[in-house]
Q: What sequence folds into this?
């Protein structure tokens, strides 16, 4: 590339870089700084990660909920995306519409809708009771189960879209060729289609997992106060107890854990390829 | 690599604030806003107050000569109808009496904002409308001015709500609310809330321990006068006893929602929300003052407030007038803090005023000093330790 042309490109992205520096990198450094200086300089806040049972518990809840949510979402998303890739144009448009539909609803409304469906006197419990399938209403919401239902629902489009866009690039002829050479439908899927759809699968997994880590509202509403995830505790530390050192420590830890999960994935796959940078 | 930034739901949905936890002062605004919407309180009285406010302001500016001469005091509350209500109740009388302009700022005096202002040395607020919990937290942070009780009159509030760094602005209660249709008998105290056999079904307690610990102590058999000092371990074990049947509320509207959807049959909630439920269910949901926990909305003054300490204290002292407090009670439902106001409450409103002598006699006054004491654990106050242990027990 010509050197002067390259300089033009740099100038073109300069405003974006500047914006990132002022409004993202600088506050981020401040957050890190507070986490090692408030209330006293040192790593005291970080030692709470090891010392305090409450923080262990909150982290364990966060990781457990995120892993389960991610697993269910990605499998369900894969099935939806696979179906979308196979059906005709008309059905595909409708399926896409339905997937995106949930994106247009407020997260609060979605959470309340789940409460209405899942509560003790909700549609599902009364329905099952009237059918005589259960005697006592099931506890479907205001607990971890409810949180996971709500989160999977929220995340599904985030899994479907990358997987589907990856699948549109897979040549069906390859599967047909495998079948022609004597592979059973399952073997053709497992050995040909699945490996080809791996980049979409991985980017969906990362997207959903990273997004889940920072979840706040759905656990707060559907968890009935009993499923406290890291974001909610950051909010409590920041706004209620004013322990900013602790809040920023947790926020920094959250950020590091995102980097860590990306680094782990990067050991096995080429992330640049997954995100289309190469 | 666009994914290194953690995405939050908050980025996508700004209305997320609605689902957060709230304290009482903020909740009152929400309630009043809805009443105004439904036309239960007249906007005309508000507008009159505003007109008067505007008039006196212009007179002041004319008489003041130089533009900078007019002193002003900035009072911060939770906005919406509270701006007009506070202007009418407290702002206008203070302006008339002293000539100092009162600006009601509805930004919401979040503890974190007050701390940030004081830390940055850029304080623009004089008097803030917070709660006992926020006052205690801010006190520990060292960002408040002490209340000057040579100007503010301790006798015009329940003595126990005269904190060193905050004093009562109004009173409200945590009470036992229940749905008559879902219980076999009327519960009369916290022991009943813990009695899962006699009163099956879910109940609601607050996510924060303030107002819940007292209920736990009484449920454990302590008489109302022996609630303090609170045994936090005992309270936590009481919570664990019924935790499977507990749904926790964060904001006042959530506590109301839980009764509305029939998810809970009883709970420890604010009396103002119980009253709303009582109205909308035609009396099905009701409450008892028995073993209620009375607490207070608090006036705080941030360190280095612009109008000066004396002006801020004079404003607080002025707001102790029973008639002013009745204006606020009428508009927003905040129970007057001054015991002298109790007799002036109209007969048909007495049943919703926690400060009526017959209601007070049934209740416990929340003991702020206990919350401030050192817990003996990791340098935390009882307030801080109980917040941690309560959250831990709820989420375990």
A:
């Amino acid at each position: 590339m010509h050197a002067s042309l390259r300089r033009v490109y740099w100038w073109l992205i300069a405003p974006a870089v500047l914006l990132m520096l002022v409004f993202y990198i600088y506050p981020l450094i401040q957050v890190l700084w507070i986490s090692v200086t408030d209330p006293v300089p040192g790593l005291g806040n970080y030692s709470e990660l090891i010392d305090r049972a409450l923080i262990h518990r909150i982290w364990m809840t966060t990781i457990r909920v995120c892993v389960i949510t991610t697993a269910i979402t990605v499998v369900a998303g894969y099935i939806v995306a696979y179906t979308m890739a196979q059906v005709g144009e008309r059905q595909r448009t409708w399926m896409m519409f339905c997937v995106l539909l949930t994106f247009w609803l407020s997260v609060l409304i979605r959470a309340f809708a789940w409460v209405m469906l899942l509560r003790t006197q909700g549609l599902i419990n009364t329905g099952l009771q009237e059918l005589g399938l259960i005697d006592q209403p099931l506890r479907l919401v205001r607990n971890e189960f409810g949180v996971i239902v709500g989160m999977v629902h929220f995340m599904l489009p985030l899994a479907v879209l990358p997987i589907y866009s990856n699948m549109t690039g897979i040549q069906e002829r390859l599967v047909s060729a495998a079948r022609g050479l004597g592979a059973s439908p399952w073997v053709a899927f497992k050995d040909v289609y699945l490996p080809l759809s791996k980049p979409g699968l991985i980017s969906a997994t990362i997207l959903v997992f990273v997004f889940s880590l920072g979840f706040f509202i759905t656990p707060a509403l559907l968890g009935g106060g009993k499923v406290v995830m890291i974001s909610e505790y950051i909010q409590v530390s920041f706004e209620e107890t004013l322990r900013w050192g602790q809040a920023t420590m947790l926020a920094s830890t959250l950020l590091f854990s995102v980097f860590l999960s990306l680094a782990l994935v990067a050991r096995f796959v080429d992330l640049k390829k997954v995100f289309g940078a190469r | 690599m666009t994914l290194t930034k953690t995405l939050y739901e908050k980025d996508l949905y700004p209305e997320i604030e609605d689902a957060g936890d709230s304290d009482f002062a903020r909740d009152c605004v929400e309630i009043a806003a809805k009443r105004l919407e439904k036309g239960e309180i007249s906007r005309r009285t508000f507008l009159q107050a505003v007109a008067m406010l505007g008039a006196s302001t212009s007179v002041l500016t004319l008489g003041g000569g130089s533009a900078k001469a007019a002193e002003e005091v900035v009072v911060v509350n939770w906005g919406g109808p509270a701006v007009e209500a506070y202007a009418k109740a407290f702002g206008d009388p203070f302006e008339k009496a002293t000539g100092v302009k009162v600006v009601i700022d509805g930004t919401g005096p979040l503890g974190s904002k007050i701390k940030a202002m004081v830390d940055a040395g850029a304080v623009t607020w004089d008097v803030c409308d917070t709660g006992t919990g926020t006052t205690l937290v801010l006190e520990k942070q060292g960002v408040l001015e002490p209340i000057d009780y040579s100007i503010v009159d301790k006798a015009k509030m329940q003595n126990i709500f005269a904190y060193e760094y905050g004093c009562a602005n109004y009173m409200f209660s945590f009470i036992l609310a229940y749905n008559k249709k879902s219980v076999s008998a009327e519960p009369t105290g916290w022991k009943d809330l813990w009695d899962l056999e006699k009163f099956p079904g879910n109940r609601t307690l607050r996510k924060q321990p303030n107002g819940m610990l007292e209920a736990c102590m009484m449920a454990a058999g302590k008489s109302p006068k022996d609630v303090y000092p609170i045994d936090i371990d005992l309270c936590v074990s009481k919570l664990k006893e019924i935790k499977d049947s507990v749904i926790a509320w964060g904001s006042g509207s959530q506590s109301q929602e839980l009764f509305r959807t029939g998810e809970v049959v009883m709970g420890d909630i604010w009396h103002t929300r119980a009253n709303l439920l009582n109205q909308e269910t035609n009396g099905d949901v009701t409450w008892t003052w028995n073993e209620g926990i009375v607490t207070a909305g608090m006036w705080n003054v941030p360190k280095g407030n612009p109008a000066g300490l004396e002006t801020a204290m004079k404003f607080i002292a002025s707001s102790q007038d029973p008639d002013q407090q009745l204006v606020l009670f009428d508009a927003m439902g905040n129970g007057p803090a001054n015991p002298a106001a109790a007799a002036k409450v109209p007969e048909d409103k007495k049943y919703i005023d926690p400060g009526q002598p017959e209601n007070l006699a049934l209740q416990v006054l929340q003991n702020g000093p206990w919350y401030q004491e050192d817990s003996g654990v990791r340098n935390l106050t009882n307030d801080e330790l109980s917040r941690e242990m309560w959250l831990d027990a709820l989420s375990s």
User: Anything to note?
Assistant: Chain B touches chain A through 46 residues (CB under 8 Å). Residues 1-18, 45-70 of chain B have pLDDT under 50 and may be disordered. The two ends of chain B are 37 Å apart (CA to CA).
